[in-house]
What we know:
alpha+beta
Amino acid sequence: MELIDQHTKTIMEECKRRAREAGLSFHDETLEYIVTNRDLLELSPKVMIPTLYDYWVHDVEVLKEKGKYELYPGNPYETVINTRPAVSFYNDNNPDWLNVMIFYHVIGHIDFFQNNSYFSHTWDYDFAGKALSDKRMIAKLRSEKGRWVDYVIEFARGMDNLVGYYDTLSEIDTSTPDKYRKRLDYYFDVFLQLVKKVSTHKYVKEVERYNRMSKEYGDQVEDAFFAEIIQKHPEFENLFEKHLDEKRPGKKIDVVQYILENSEFLDKEENQWMKSVVQVVRGTSLFFQPQVRTKIMNEGWASYWHERLFLADERILGHEVEYARVNAGVTTMPRVGLNPYALGMKLFQYVEELADKGKLTYQFQRIKNARERSEYDAKTGKGKEFIFHLRDNFSDFLLVNTFLDQDFVDRYNLFVVGKRLNRQRLVWEYYVKSRKAEDYRQMVLDSLYHPPHIEVDREKSTNGVLYLNHRFEGKPLYKDFIPNTMMGIEYLWGEPVKLETTELVERRVMGKKEVQERRVVYTMENKKISKKNA
Length: 534
């Protein structure tokens, strides 16, 4: 692995200049390395962070990937990581024309990392530098504690998807002054819900009123909005000031953080080192949370820009056919399955067209005639501005749930595939199960990252027991993972652990099969697990 040469760096800098002229925004400093395919295989298990802490699972993944590579050799083009400065890796087999295309793709990623609000908690520090410090600390502990370090890493990683990612984001504000952010949070989260206990209908009306005033007053919306509130609720200001002076009761902290702050076992002098290891695992998980929640957007944004910028670049001349072949492999919509590069790119192009034609307005939504809808074009020219708004504020869930509609499904002839057994020929058959947008959209949403919502129930956590409550959201926990995960939590907590969750039970009612929900409680005590109805 080595830095790219001066010739290639010059190409990169020219690509950065043209990307900025097109509207992309990113820091000047970047680092680019040339790597071999085998280098990439070794970096992949560490999520391409060379300085990430060592762990035995990484070595297993490297051996597995090397085995695959021997059977099915591939040629990955690039990868980029969200650090300060941004670091990207390029295959040593790439010709110059391909590097131009790839550089545009990478710049799209960097722009997304440094502007999307879901990454805002990663903007103020260099994760690669922090990871190196963590790696050295864990290496030192491993030389002193031996295999116990790996046990603690494994126990912590077993619950690292329970970190409070959104709670972390809620502490960061990138849009409104701090005083207004706190006042807005208090008004909508506490005053309306806990003090006034308004109905859902009235709550939604207040949100709509704020959005309406925001369009009318612009930057002065907070002054106008709170002037009306104080006129209607004179007690608001006093309650708000009192709220600021007091520590908010029931502060939300995630399961990992709760264990770190309250485990008597970890507080023992001989176990203090374990806290440092768990904190490293938690911090690493928080860093990568936005990447798994924006995969479609991130890859789609990068693909959108590499296509748009490279097609307008004179350096494509003479390589049009080669580019078309490479680009098709990246951005083609598959008939079966999902391609995040293609889906994301086409959604951005589709939304840009809608905004350019004014089809995102209420006026257009009122049109029922299919021909009028198809021919409607208000020529607003706001498409580019709108997709930059999406880049700044949306996640995969919001993008798919908002814009993947029937017109999009029809345009690209998308469908949901079903699978059935042909009993006569004894073969599996694939068939078109549905062409409805709601079914295709649900298929995409089901593929998105969605960790379980598990919280510590402080009222039930008595006599040393840690009581965890799983808020059921339609997806039961994977049963095979429960025993080992709870065993790791019990070790770090030092006392028995209970987990209340929902399981789906199939029963026959009046001769018909029905799926019913049942709350159960798992108990892990002395490395033995038991289960009973809640």
